[in-house]
Amino acid sequence: MKKLLASFFFAFYSTVLLAQDGDAKDINVNISTKGDAWYASPWVWVVGAAVFILLLVALTRGGRRD
Prior knowledge:
Elements: H1 2-18, H2 42-61
């Protein structure tokens, strides 16, 4: 049983290896500084952290009665 399972595994593995493309593709990635994403600005992270902290404080103090 082990030999049958091993031969099936190796046959499947060799099929996967042969399915790989032999020639390399030329991929050009153009990175520009214009039009940065909204999450790249530091003020967005500061405002998001402040909102998260306020929400966290409001949720944890919401159940208490003074």
